[in-house]
Amino acid sequence: TASTLRSMIIGIEITLVVxxxxxxxxxxxxxxxGVSLAVYIVFxxxxxxxxxxxxxxxxxxETKAHSRAVDSLLNFETVKxxxxxDYEARRYDETLAASQRTAVMSQQSxxxxxxxxxxxxxxxxxxxxxxxxxxxxxxxLLQVVRRAFLLYTIVFIGWYGxxxxxxxxxxxxxxxxxxxxxxxxxLIDPM
Length: 191
Prior knowledge:
This protein has 191 residues and is mainly alpha-helical.
């Protein structure tokens, strides 16, 4: 599939970059880049898996709250006849409160993901900057490190990450156009 092919291409690119760094420069430099990238990927996968569980739970609770509201409105005569207004209202309120808690958790999980990724990049950059004296004695290596980090930041995190987010927005727009158009569709969290 396309995702397998994309993963293979990214793996080949990473291998080539690390091999180039080992071949032309010190091993520790390749180690910093390789370890930071590995930690970044593992962290992103773990937190994204956790976020997926939270998002699914939120979607389930939203669906449950919506169906309870619709059922109560459609069957209002039966609910009123049996005096179950308080029961139905309490049931709906409980579901809505759980949905709101899960929505907050979903946003918090996105914040954890973003902050963790930034910390990983900051640590890698700090390691490189701490070794600035060593780099200063090797101006060519310093230029390569700066360009490599800039390239990594712009290409991998910037374009690749935003391209995935753009795909989500395009799909949300297509869904909104083909179904009932609502602005809330565009305010959803991408994960």
